[in-house]
Amino acid sequence: MGLFDLSGRVGIVTGGNGGIGLGIARGLAEAGARVVLVARDSIKGTAAVASLGAGEHLFLAADVTSLEACRRVAAETVERFGRLDILVNNAGIAIRKAPQDYAEAEWRSVLDTNLTSAFFCAQACHPAMKQSGGGKIINIGSMMSLFGAPYAVPYAASKGGLVQMTKALATAWAGDNIQVNAILPGWIDTALTATARAQVPGLSDQVVARTPAGRWGEPEDLAGAAVFLASAASGFVTGTALPVDGGYSARA
Fold first, then answer.
1. What is the mean pLDDT of residues 83-94?
2. Options 102, 151, 155, 248, the catalytic residue
3. How confident is the model at residue 149 (pLDDT cuts 50, 70, 90)?
């Protein structure tokens, strides 16, 4: 098997029916993996699976804030494909408000969707990965894992926590040959960031001005990093957080 060849591997991508998740899923599929997309919206999920092209892929509808649902997804994946090698924790939401205006339910919703779900999915997938002799867990963070933002406090808290969880799981499961890493996307053109652009005047121009690459990212820009972290090429890489941001975080 080549260093970046994922033939024979099976991967789960949460929040995989659009945006960054689908861009990553397409990259894994192109590298040879069989991909299981997990999300709540079955209509979008069915269409997303069809867009992955040739290969045996699957969509599972699930609310990954539930540990029971995560365990079901892992079990159905193993039942269908006989193994589980890759988990991409991408499910996420954002609610933009001043910190003093968040309701308790809004805070919990963001933390549960962005952070707790990633832990539950990792916990649910661990036994199958260990049984297979190893695995790869990729947590999708954010620029808000590095920077503060006045109208994204729960989002930033969840994404910062995701990086620390990545490091902790990497140390806990290294003996099981499971590498755990994070990708920190920069400003990527998705439905989620379209809402931010609509709410924040001048955001698009500000992002382009700060990004050395001179543009917003596309979901497909995350595929290469994900394939690397999902493949044998990253066998000695664990506990890292890799910005994929066109140089945004490198500029003072």
1. 98
2. 155
3. confident
Six token digits for residue 212: 């050395």
Assigned token pair, 98 = 């001043």
Residue range 210-252, pLDDT digits in tens: 999 999 999 999 999 999 999 999 999 999 999 999 999 999 8
Count CB atoms within 10 A of the CB of residue 220: 14
Structure token pair of residue 225: 């990093």
**Is 155 an active-site residue?**
yes
Angle subtended at Cα 41 by Cα 49 and Cα 222, rounded to the nearest 5 degrees: 55
Q: Which domains does the chain have, with CATH numbers?
A: 10-244 (3.40.50.720)
Query: CA 23, CA 221: separation in Å to the nearest integer?
Result: 8
| Integer-rounded Cα radius of gyration of the chain | 17
Q: What is the pLDDT of residue 252?
A: 84
Average pLDDT of 144-157? 94
Closest CA to 33 of 1, 61, 60: 1
Which residue reads 């969880």 in tokens? 165
Pairwise CA distance, residues 223 & 228, whole Å: 9
